Amino acid sequence: MKAGSAASPLWTVEALAQATGGTLTGLPAGAIGGMSIDTRTLQPGDAFFAIRGDNSDGHAYVTMAQARGAALSVVEHARLAEMPEGATLLAVDDVLAALEQTGRAARARTGARIVGVTGSVGKTTTKEALALALGADGPTHASAASYNNHWGVPLSLARMPQHSAYGVFELGMNHAGEIATLVDMVRPHVAIITTIEPVHIAQFEGIEGIADAKAEIFTGVEPGGAAVLNCDNPHFARLAAAARAAGIDTIIGFGEADEAQARLTSVNLQPHMSTAMADIMGESVSFKVGLPGRHIVQNALAVLAAAKLAGADLCLAALALSELGPPPGRGVRTTLAVKAGMATLIDESYNANPASMRAALAVLGTTPPTGRGRRLAVLGDMLELGPQGEAMHRELAGAASVADLVFCAGPLMRALWEALPENRRGAWAPDAAALLPLVAPRLRGGDVIMVKGSNGSRMGPLARALIERFPAGSLAETAETSE
């Protein structure tokens, strides 16, 4: 959905020029309905920011942006001579800095209640749940996909309509100091930390360093704001102390612990969803979450607490959670037409760390196969774990016991492979590409196959290859005939 329209543009040309301090040149600009840094997804009326990435320079795509109907392109003064003749341009000193300035201006002009989300695991799904929960109460803007870094956050802010009632932003990091910079732009009224786990731990001396880096989110919380923290995580006290040190008086713990102010009182975990009851800051609420897994229910508690703190209707927020679906690579289920019937693929390939791997395996354990089917775990290396990486892979053996067969790809996953009992070893290969031909022939009707690994382990292409090799549509005619 477009953020703005010709009748009610996201930005006027004058306001964008003022926000960036840029100079307009070339043909007059039309109404600005959106913001883009990628011509592949640019829509007519978008402002195109020609930022320089690690592998490409947006200035090389200004002609394409114009052809696709961009309202204008934001470019560097020093590159004006390279731009196509007659292009509609906004010239600035630094394009990424101009995007940040636009994001800050968007934040300054809105009266929306803002929620910021970080944590080692579950940020994106929690952000999506917040968008649903708050969206049930009023116009809500949320960052797209996992736009949680140095360009994703200001782009998400720049796309926020001025009259939004709520805004939801995800903040990520892989080194200290990163979140402090991002939260200075977002300035949330409510800050959520989903959990602290050994993710990106290779960049830190220990897990306490990860907790401290995540706690940087408190430095940007608006006066009178609140922190929502995982009461069941062993780093809760450390985070709460950091929140208090940042001047935050309202600290809400969520979880199953007796002292949690957003406390789970009962839960019923199902293969495709969960139902639960909770006490949210003294208010009893029942809800259904449209995704499976105890970890999803846990983070739903944080969502409901944040919604209440932001002033949204708690009952509407709870009802909306039933509509929650998985983002790409985070539990999307696809039917495969394999030999002797249909199988279910659970694509968890977006990323992996010890906590998310255990959570995904737990979901596999609650998903029953049919007929003679089995539970299969297809796992790739978890990266950026430092010297303890091999041990962390080996320690997954207990969690992997839910699978009838485990297929492993990568040198680190060799440690898990060797820790498995013989009867659960499916196959091991040095990488995902080499594992694919070992997995595919073993699939049969009724199987449930869960694929997971860090992005760098390339398990995503493996999942897509299985979908392409066993398209469910190939059995559609047979299924229709049998009905």
CATH class of the largest domain: Alpha Beta
What would you give as the CATH superfamily of the largest domain?
A: Mur-like, catalytic domain
Mean pLDDT across residues: 94
General shape: globular
End-to-end C-alpha gap: 38 Å
Architecture of the largest domain in CATH? 3-Layer(aba) Sandwich
> Mind describing the biggest β-sheet?
9 strands, mixed
Unreliable sequence segments = 474-483
User: What structural class do you assign from the helix and strand content?
Assistant: alpha/beta
Using only C-alpha atoms, the radius of gyration works out to: 24 Å
Strand order of the main beta sheet, please?
Answer: 7-8-6-9-10-11-12-13-14
Q: What does it look like?
A:
This protein has a nine-stranded mixed sheet, sandwiched between helices. A hairpin with a 2-residue loop joins strand 15 (332-338) and strand 16. The protein is built from 16 helices and 20 strands. It has helices at residues 13-20, 62-67, 95-109, 123-135, 152-158, 178-186, 207-214, 236-245, 294-309, 314-320, 354-366, 389-394, 413-419, 432-439, 459-469, 476-482, and strands at 23-25, 34-36, 46-49, 72-76, 89-92, 113-118, 140-142, 166-170, 190-193, 226-230, 250-255, 262-269, 274-280, 283-289, 332-338, 341-348, 375-380, 405-409, 425-429, 448-452. Helix 3 (95-109) crosses helix 5 and helix 4 (123-135) packs across helix 9. The radius of gyration is 24 Å and the shape is globular. It has three domains: 13-101, 3-Layer(aba) Sandwich (Udp-n-acetylmuramoylalanyl-d-glutamate--2,6- Diaminopimelate Ligase, Chain: A, domain 1); 110-323, 3-Layer(aba) Sandwich (UDP-N-acetylmuramoyl-L-alanine:D-glutamate ligase); 332-478, Protein-Tyrosine Phosphatase, Chain A, CATH 3.90.190. The protein is 31% helix and 22% strand. With 483 residues, the chain is an alpha/beta fold.
